[in-house]
Here is the input.
Amino acid sequence: MAIALLIGTILGLSMPAYAQAAKYAPPPSYSNAELRKHDFSGQELRSAEFSNANLDQANFTGAKVRGGVFSASVLTDAILHGADLSNAMLDQVKFKGADLSDAVLTETILLRSTFQDVNITGADFTDAILDGAQVKELCKIADGVNPTTGVETRYSLGCRD
Here is the structure.
């Protein structure tokens, strides 16, 4: 304990900060990884880093990836059913054939991402940042109510009938 206090003092950390740093591990990093068909279902992946990762056919069913970073990743045929991706960075992501049904995408950044043949039934995009063209395309297929948040997909996207 005395050594920890000494190290904390030398590094300019107070004892509570040192204790807190020791208690919480840094978020996992999968940047630039080949994760094709990887199963992340049901996992707690808060603030995990997936930038530039190949996540083709990866399974994130029910995963909690709040604050995750997926910038420029490929999520072709990925399963994100019921995943919590709130406050995540999903910019420049390729969502071809992805299942985003019942996903929570609140306050998520999705700029310059592509959505081709996706399932967004029941997805909640409340306060997500999307390009106008993305919203227009997603509104064509928007349907359902998110079972976690109770928000209609069309409402969350700001679709106009």
Q: What stands out?
A: The chain is about 20% helix and 5% strand. Confidence is low (pLDDT under 50) at residues 1-11. Strands lie at 94-96, 114-116. The helical segments are 2-10, 15-23, 132-139, 153-157.
